[in-house]
Amino acid sequence: MVIPLAERYRDRLPFTDATPVVSLGEGSTPLLPAPRLSRRLGVELWLKWEAANPTGSFKDRGMTVAVSKAVEEGAQAIVCASTGNTASSAAAYAARAGIPAVILQPKGAVASAKLAQTRMYGARILELRGTFDEALEAARELAAVGTHSLVNSLNPHRREGQKTAVFEIVDELGGAPDAVYLPYGGGGNTTAYGQAFLELDGRPSRLVAAEAIDRAGTLASAIRISEPVHAASVQEALERTGGHVVTLSDDEILAAWHDLAASEGLFCELCSAAGLAALAKEPPEPGATVVCVITGHGLKDPESAGWLAPPPVVVDPDPEAIAEAAS
């Protein structure tokens, strides 16, 4: 039985006896060894498989807290700007809570599977003729009116929930790893990880944030954020842990994405491979214990698999033809 993070780490979260916890069983995601990649990279590599959360991404960790607190505070609805995963998570938790969700997204910038998820949860989806940054500003303005609670990572309750991934990693490994590599889009998750290490006793992991060279045009749509709203707090977290930012080309992210699937059997969405790409580009000292955070499932964006995966081979239903094609 999975223990939701609201129960597992209640004493470290901003819940009170009056908080109506809105949960879908998030958290307690697997920490998987990566033996083939470990040998190749010369480290002890673990993969935090956040795709196992209810809507398929790490966003659920923060959303359970943000929506629970919104309901406690009497919000009539929630609102967010999103390139996909935040929207799916917000819509799911709003449905669970029985309140409306308004989603603002850049027109044409969201993967179809993420959009399908959000539609099925019943959210009101509005496509803006503009960038993510403009959508976020519009969401903030709507929240300022007072009827809608903003559930982007500007909401501190989101980061409170997301920090619990670090607690799980440290609990399972019996201490902090030498380094944690994770994708860097808006920076909320990196900030949350930095916050978690501040709250824990002992040596923090070195945080390494992986971003795209072309933030505005990267194929990794979930980190397609031109101006990270948490840039200052990310820099602070990196400096505090001795970490840094690794800047990646799309080709480097694509290579890591394919490698993760082919070498370890994990199909993640493209942006989720950014941490692994950063590890391959700038590995730590040999033998280091490293965690790569895999933030979302590949079924969030299945069309992207066509860029790298070979197409099916058409054959006749004949054993010899099949054997020849399979060799």
Write the layout of secondary structure elements.
Blueprint: H1 5-8, E1 31-33, H2 35-41, E2 44-49, H3 59-72, E3 77-81, H4 85-97, E4 101-106, H5 112-120, E5 124-128, H6 132-145, E6 148-150, H7 156-162, H8 164-173, E7 179-183, H9 188-199, E8 206-212, H10 231-241, E9 244-248, H11 250-264, H12 274-281, E10 289-294, H13 319-326
Parallel strand pairs: 2-10, 3-4, 3-6, 4-5, 7-8, 7-10, 8-9
Antiparallel strand pairs: 1-2
Helix pairs in contact: 3-4, 3-7, 4-5, 7-9, 9-10, 11-12
Spatial order of the strands in the main sheet?
Answer: 1-2-10-7-8-9
Based on DSSP secondary structure assignment, what is the total number of beta strands? 10
Strand content: 15-25%
Number of helices: 13
Mean pLDDT: 93
How would you characterize the largest beta sheet?
A: 6 strands, mixed
CATH class designation of the largest domain: Alpha Beta
CATH architectural group of the largest domain: 3-Layer(aba) Sandwich
What does this protein structure show overall?
- This protein is an alpha/beta fold.
- It folds into 2 domains: 5-57 and 157-307, Rossmann fold, CATH 3.40.50.1100; 59-155, Rossmann fold (3-Layer(aba) Sandwich).
- It contains 13 helices and 10 strands.
- A 6-stranded mixed beta sheet has the order 1-2-10-7-8-9, sandwiched between helices. A 4-stranded parallel beta sheet has the order 5-4-3-6, sandwiched between helices.
